[in-house]
Fold this sequence. Notes:
The chain has 184 residues and is of the alpha+beta class. The chain has 2 domains: 1-28; 31-183, endopeptidase fold (from Nostoc punctiforme) (Alpha-Beta Complex). It has 2 helices and 13 strands; from the N terminus they run αββββαβββββββββ. A 6-stranded antiparallel β-sheet has the order 8-13-9-10-11-12, with helices on one face. The N and C termini lie far apart (56 Å).
Amino acid sequence: xxxxxxxxxxxxxxxxxxxxxxxxxxxxxxxxxxxxxxxxxxxxxxxxxxxxxxxxxxxxxxxxxxxxxxxxxxxxxxxxxxxxxxxxxxxxxxxxxxxxxxxxxxxxxxxxxxxxxxxxxxxxxxxxxxxxxxxxxxxxxxxxxxxxxxxxxxxxxxxxxxxxxxxxxxxxxxxxxxxxxxxx
Length: 184
């Protein structure tokens, strides 16, 4: 049994190395993991491709294809606002304003930490730093609210393709890592 595990490990190392050679030789083209209900693509995050800066319409959105990049890109495309750079995704909870991309005006970025309320569509969910998210926190966009459940769209959470226009459904009252959400 141990020899079998060693062979599987060796095979996984070889396949990983071949993937890296492939990426280096042909270049990396983003892989669409899914699209939210608004048609905004969510890209598969592959750490080996580096952390290139991304922009939309010439406006910085973040490092490809981190969760913060998707949220900032979503806010730019759907609400016409962006926010200052943050060290970790969880730090978004402490931002007090967003900036309109057209005129630079500052708008309030309200924080709600009451899990008994339902966030509106377009709210930015903010999760605490944990082992699962490499101690950086995590952010997602609420794309649908049904009773106590919310459908979210998110980038850099898992590597599966979406089978609908959401990443997953959450019951916020039972989410231990949810810090709250932000609303423009």
